[in-house]
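Data availability (excerpt). All sequences and predicted token strings are deposited with the supplementary files. A representative entry, Glucosamine-6-phosphate deaminase, is shown inline so that the format can be inspected without opening the archive.
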Amino acid sequence: MTAEIDEQPDILAGLVEHRGDIAEVARAIAASPPRFALLAARGSSDHAALYAKYLIEVLLGLPAGLVSPSATTLYGARPDLRDVLLISVSQSGGSPDLLEVTESARKQGALTVAVSNTPSSRLFSAAELAVDVRAGEEHAVAATKTYTATLLALYLLIDAVRGGSGEDVRDIGELARRTLDGSRAGIGRAVDRYRFAGRVLAAARGYSYATALEASLKLAETSYLATRAYSGADLLHGPVAAVDEETAVLAVTSKGRGGAAMGEVLGAVAERGADVLTVGSAASDMPGALHIDVPETAEEVAPVLEVLPVQRLALGLSLARGGDPDNPRGLRKVTKTR
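Structure token line:
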């Protein structure tokens, strides 16, 4: 896990260099403009799909939704998907339910795109179009480099559909290296502070909500922490009542509308005595016990960088709590569901 976290700056830079391959897929999508977009995924890829949902709705102005695979696999639903874009996101390309969803959607008239780190997978051949996230083989059970590469690949795809050139991610590899190097000391302090935590909430708004969900998953699967992730808005709609002095809150707050909307949320949890760690380019602007700053980017790109310190935090907490992040109990690298 340590080695694969450290590979990410080079992987992200390489993906930008090969964005021409992604632009070809984008041109095919733009040639047949969809009226709606659907995204199918599981696990960490589901968080990447949620990120893409925001990108599609905000940058392309299209309605977008997340597929419930069981509607196809368990209940046999076959909706009319003419003029619909289906993007299936799977790091391994090995989940039977996503394969079935993709095959079914194609038969029902959807334009299907597979986004995966495994070009040899059946998912790649099942879809009409495919995007290779080019992260290289990932050995750690906890996805790190495949997650950030998937985020960047989805951004490059959607940006290219709208006619963009990827300008906002031109230096993403360098920014990722600065993020990892610059957050090392802060992560050390956070590990010391939260190694005995019993309950953690992760929260964010907008594009960064995907990062909060991924943070929750990483802490649960590597450190066995009881974690929950909420949109900051949803947190205020009820769950904030359970926040007290025994609660650690990981708040993802990058500059932009989503990060600004977290001010009210953090004020509310601070009133209840929560111990707050803020991560992001707006981290130091927010109330909290600890702050881990991330280089500023366009808001829609921030999730690619925000998650890097979170990965290091999950790794550090796992080791500090006596765990083995490369062998989390009960987990395998590829989870096959239907």
